[in-house]
Design goal:
Layout lengths: L1 H17 L2 H9 L3 E10 L11 E2 L2 E5 L5 E9 L2 E11 L5 E4 L4 E7 L5 E10 L2 E10 L6 H13 L8 E2 L1 E6 L6 E3 L6 H6 L5 E2 L7
Length: 207
């Protein structure tokens, strides 16, 4: 009986070792589905006029082999344009490369359920540029997630005054149509109650 249990145990261990560890991490992260950008931070304070006045939900699709595709919508000349970015997995768990290896994207799981951070390293005019995005499964205000995001930004050397909350853009009304802004907004009063010194960027609906 003991030999049988030992054999079964060794078989399970062998099966686990045979699996790609990156695939295991991908399953644990459970990134597929729709995500909402709840907060953004960058290494150099972005001028208000250059900030994204609204952000669309992110649709994450897992490909065979562990790569991910991020689908989102951007505004260009008053119209919606869908974009797809391929994230190619690396040997380091949770780390991906995008745009022909020009960008490095690290996915960090927060201790708050259904909340992650996309930490992006890039180059702007030959100089390093970093960006952090707090994403969540829904638009509900989660103070614990905001606190954890604040801790993360501090650990990466971001200035707290560089954190801002973008408005949420709904689905476009047809191909190339105008976006519908989500009514859900994080108000300055709500953020002040949590004593998080972050800026709220409230856009105009018309551009």
């Amino acid at each position: 009986m003991k030999m049988l249990l030992l054999t079964i145990g060794l078989s399970l261990v062998a099966a686990l070792l045979a699996q790609d560890p990156l695939d295991l991490v991908s399953e644990q992260l459970d990134l597929t589905g729709t995500w909402y950008v709840k907060a953004v931070v960058d290494t150099k304070e972005m001028p208000v006029e250059k900030r994204p006045d609204k952000v669309s939900p992110l649709m994450v699709t897992a490909l065979e082999g562990g790569d991910l595709v991020i689908t989102f919508t951007i505004m260009k000349k008053g119209q919606c344009h869908e974009k797809n970015i391929l994230l190619e997995k690396t040997e380091e768990p949770g780390k991906y490369r995008a745009l022909h290896c020009k960008k490095v994207v690290q996915v960090e799981e927060l201790p708050v359920k259904d909340h992650y951070v996309f930490y992006i390293e890039d180059q702007r005019r030959g100089r390093p540029f970093c960006l952090g995005k707090l994403i969540g499964r829904n638009l509900d205000v989660n103070f614990e997630a905001l606190k954890e995001f604040k801790k993360f930004t501090q650990s990466k050397g971001f200035l707290q005054e560089n954190i801002f909350i973008p408005a949420q853009m709904g689905k476009c009304t047809g191909s190339g149509g105008s976006p519908v802004l989500q009514e859900h907004q994080l108000s300055a009063q709500v953020l002040e109650q949590d004593k998080l010194q972050v800026k709220v960027w409230v856009p105009h609906c018309e551009r």
